[in-house]
Amino acid sequence: MTQFLGTGVALATPFTKENEVDENALRRLVQFQIKNGVDYLVVMGTTAESPTLSKVEKQRVKHIIKTENNGKLPLVYGLGGNSTSQLVADLGEEDLEGFDAILSVSPFYNKPSQEGIYQHFAAVSEASPLPVILYNVPGRTGSNMLPLTVRRLANDFDNIIGIKEASGDIVQAMQMIRDTPEDFLVISGDDMITLPMLLAGGAGVISVMAQGFPAEFTRLVNFGMQKKAEEAYKIQYQLMDGIDLIFKEGNPSGIKSVLELKRITESFVRLPLVKASSELNSALSVFIKQLK
């Protein structure tokens, strides 16, 4: 699955001030990623504010991204849930033409045991028409998918090809890299520790920061993949303050502020999220100017 090595970007959904999907801004956003060298795009992830989109809006967003991408980059579609039976049904009904894999988050709110997580993804594996990338994000789901569970899934199901590991625990990530098959992709879901994960043998990142700074973050990842640590850390240290800032008031409020400052999209988000504060917006503006 070499098409998922390197820099993946979790696309945001731009909105107008009337709270509608901003289709023209979405097209600009896709082109901004393509022109600046990212390796693949993730559609309908957390950053897309997918829980706030209607089924009709999701289909429209999906169509626009596929059309604008026009086969240039691999596409991953976010499809998860905390009802296994409903997710299996969704996998059978969703039009996934033009997508190369699905990204499926570990069940949230229910707080399943490790065996429950294993059985959930066993069912997903059987139902999915596409390769599956697991998504572990304990800060949002309320439960942690442990390395032993990931190892079992990686060994037992050929179409489970990787994991977006966003626990923020570098030791856990290293255990996953060590204990899973060589061709299993352990992908960083945490921008700040992407480089250490790459140097430990990780497969890349599904990034928020790269959406606003695709050229810079892709260079960092490429150096990391090449094990050029000195060059990579130079970029890492330039980006660190910005990474902290974009998550300071929640995602995607911070990165949407960046995208507005770069005149790619507006910074509108949907409730229960709110726009970045004027203080954060000012700090991000200073960061962008300093980065140049």
TrEMBL record:
Pathway connected to this protein: Amino-acid biosynthesis; L-lysine biosynthesis via DAP pathway; (S)-tetrahydrodipicolinate from L-aspartate: step 3/4
The reaction(s) this protein catalyses: L-aspartate 4-semialdehyde + pyruvate = (2S,4S)-4-hydroxy-2,3,4,5-tetrahydrodipicolinate + H2O + H(+)
Domain of life: Bacteria
GO MF term set: 4-hydroxy-tetrahydrodipicolinate synthase activity
Localisation: Cytoplasm
Residue positions of the active site: Y135, K164
Site (described: Part of a proton relay during catalysis): T46, Y109
SMART domains from the UniProt entry: DHDPS
Keywords associated with the record: Amino-acid biosynthesis, Cytoplasm, Diaminopimelate biosynthesis, Lyase, Lysine biosynthesis, Schiff base
EC number(s) on file: 4.3.3.7
Any one Gene Ontology cellular component term annotated for this protein: cytosol
One GO BP: lysine biosynthetic process via diaminopimelate
Assembly and binders: Homotetramer; dimer of dimers.
Protein family (similarity comment): Belongs to the DapA family.
Free-text function comment from the UniProt entry: Catalyzes the condensation of (S)-aspartate-beta-semialdehyde [(S)-ASA] and pyruvate to 4-hydroxy-tetrahydrodipicolinate (HTPA).
Family annotation (HAMAP family): DapA
Protein name as it appears in the record: 4-hydroxy-tetrahydrodipicolinate synthase
Annotated source species: Psychroflexus aurantiacus
